[in-house]
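Why should sequence recovery work at all? Because a backbone constrains its sequence more than one might expect. Tight turns favour small or flexible residues, buried strands favour hydrophobic ones, and helices have their own preferences. The token representation captures these environments compactly. In the example below, the structure is given first.
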């Protein structure tokens, strides 16, 4: 019962972070929509002042033009291209915007109320209801290249510098150049991909709800998939982070709800286990030349094993003097320091090999050097 309760707490933390993220997105979109509504109201008021009894058609054209201009102004600082197509339903008192295309992709059709003195209503993004209003909302069936939905894992190919990101809720991996430009995506046999690492021109990805590990070529072609839900060898129960040993190419996988690290060969065959009766909910793992470090989530700490898998230390990392409890991912830098993201405090901590804080960067926000719920790190 205690383990089940702890498992529920871990899932609750993950769900709470998603709720916070959704609320943040809702507030941001509401602010944008309020600004747009305010601008449209000004234009509509101007139209009303110029309105005469027999010039309704002219007013329609004026409002259309105003809406076009305001939307284009809203996206002026982005790479988005936009096209409008209007349906003439003016005689019914409603002007229907037939479609909007952003970057060539059709969006859900919003609706505009006429005559122009009617005040638009801001859509309710929490309930996903679309009242009669001017609203651009991307269709849930479309997943545009370069757009991410709950990105959890990140890995960098050491030769090309290309960045591989697990786009978890879109069930795919997206690849970007070192400058951030979108390159391509792959999604064969993916079910909530989370952890990702690259070794010897192979990409390894954990599937959270698929309870398996997939191996791909750098270009995204599936080579092999191993695992199913269970607690036997080469079975998994919500696998999270993973890493590859440079010494023997073995793959270390956080088998979270089985409370262990499973070690596979480079061909994804079962090799051994680590942390039995010691780990509670391992979140991430990193393998260096002489150590294996495991971030455990039940009583957040860092277990340190030597190359023979003997426990040598148990680190309690403290960010700003408090035990770090809000991290799912970490990495090791060239000086063997521990670099850890903290999704609750919207920052990244750097600890030495003894777990002592030596640096911190980032704060909540959307500007350069700012974060909101940082997760994966590489």
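From this structural description, the recovered sequence reads:
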């Amino acid at each position: 019962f205690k383990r089940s309760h702890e498992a529920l707490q871990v899932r609750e933390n993950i769900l709470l972070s998603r709720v916070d993220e959704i609320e943040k997105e809702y507030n941001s979109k509401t602010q944008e929509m309020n600004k747009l509504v305010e601008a449209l109201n000004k234009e509509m008021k101007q139209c009303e002042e110029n309105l005469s009894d027999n010039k309704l058609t002219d007013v329609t054209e004026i409002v259309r033009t105003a809406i076009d201009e305001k939307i284009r102004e809203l996206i002026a600082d982005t790479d988005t291209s936009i096209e409008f197509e209007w349906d003439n339903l003016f005689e019914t008192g409603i002007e229907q915007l037939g479609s909007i295309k952003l970057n060539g992709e059709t969006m859900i059709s919003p609706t505009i109320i006429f005559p122009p003195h009617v005040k638009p209503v801001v859509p309710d993004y929490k309930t996903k209801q679309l009242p009669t209003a001017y609203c651009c909302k991307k269709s849930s069936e479309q997943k545009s290249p370069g757009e991410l939905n709950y990105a959890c894992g990140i890995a960098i190919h050491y030769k090309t510098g290309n960045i591989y990101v697990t786009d978890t809720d879109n069930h795919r991996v997206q690849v970007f150049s070192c400058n951030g430009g979108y390159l391509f995506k792959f999604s064969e046999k993916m079910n909530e991909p989370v952890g990702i690492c690259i070794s010897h021109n192979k990409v390894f990805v954990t599937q959270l709800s698929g309870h398996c590990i997939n191996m791909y070529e750098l270009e995204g072609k599936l080579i092999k998939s191993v695992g199913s839900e269970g607690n036997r060898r080469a079975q998994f129960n919500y696998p999270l982070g993973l890493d590859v040993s440079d010494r023997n190419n073995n793959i270390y996988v956080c088998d979270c709800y089985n409370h262990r690290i499973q070690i596979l060969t480079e061909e994804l065959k079962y090799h051994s286990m680590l942390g039995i009766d010691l780990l509670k909910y391992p979140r991430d793992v990193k393998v260096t030349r002489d150590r294996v470090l495991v971030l455990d989530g039940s009583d957040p700490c860092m277990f340190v094993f030597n190359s023979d898998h003997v426990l040598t230390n148990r680190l309690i990392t403290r960010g700003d003097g408090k035990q770090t409890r809000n991290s799912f991912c970490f990495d090791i830098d060239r000086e063997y320091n521990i670099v850890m993201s903290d999704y609750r405090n919207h920052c990244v901590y750097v600890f030495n090999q003894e777990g002592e804080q030596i640096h911190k960067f980032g704060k909540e926000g959307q500007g350069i050097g700012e974060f909101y719920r940082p997760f994966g790190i590489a």
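A few observations help interpret the result. The two ends are 36 Å apart (CA to CA).
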